[in-house]
Amino acid sequence: MTIPIGHSAPDFTLPDQDEQPFRLSDSAGKRLLLVFYPGDETPVCTRQLCDYRDGLDSFADLGVEVVGISRDDAESHRRFRERHQLPFTLLSDPDMSVADQYGCRGLLGMKRGVFLVDESGIVRYAHVEAVAAFRRRREELVEAIGSLE
């Protein structure tokens, strides 16, 4: 089940692309866009994350940092970031335990989902795609986040 808007985001600790621990609660005071995606170098995921990369200024103008989460390991994330010049953190959730907490675990793997977590750790926006071929585009997210102001 997807985390309802207005509820606390479940805390978690996952390794990033440099194998350093990333703990959600350590980001208190920041607005994070958690982006769950099925896998590095897959066509839809690559388009999605490159779209967010290309609009990073739009997210920054809203005070939002992007954080990607997939099952892939740190080495895969490092290659993916380098190849596509992705300037944001990518986290590894190999057993999909965090994806499960956020309602992004599907029968065939990780579902695509986006969650805006505010400075207090509250979910302010949540969307999980019913079909993996679909994704939230940057313009849709920027508009939705901007309307929360």
Which structural category fits the helices and strands? alpha/beta
Kindly, what is the distance between the CA atoms of the first and last residues, rounded to a whole number of angstroms? 26 Å
Strand content: 25-35%
Number of helical regions = 5
Mean pLDDT: 90
Radius of gyration: 14 Å
Beta strands, count:
9
Tell me the strand order in the biggest sheet: 5-4-3-8-9
Order of helices and strands: EEEHHEHEHEEEEH
Describe the 3D structure.
There is one protein chain. 34% of the residues are buried. Strand 4, helix 3 and strand 5 form a beta-alpha-beta unit. The mean pLDDT is 90. With 149 residues, the protein is of the alpha/beta class. The strands form 3 sheets. A 5-stranded mixed β-sheet has the order 5-4-3-8-9. Strands 1-2 form a two-stranded antiparallel ribbon. The protein has helices at residues 43-54, 56-61, 74-84, 97-101, 138-147, and strands spanning 13-15, 21-23, 31-36, 64-70, 89-92, 105-106, 109-110, 113-117, 123-128. The two termini are 26 Å apart. The chain is globular, with a radius of gyration of 14 Å.
How would the blueprint of this fold be written?
Layout: E1 13-15, E2 21-23, E3 31-36, H1 43-54, H2 56-61, E4 64-70, H3 74-84, E5 89-92, H4 97-101, E6 105-106, E7 109-110, E8 113-117, E9 123-128, H5 138-147
Parallel strand pairs: 3-4, 4-5
Antiparallel strand pairs: 1-2, 3-8, 6-7, 8-9
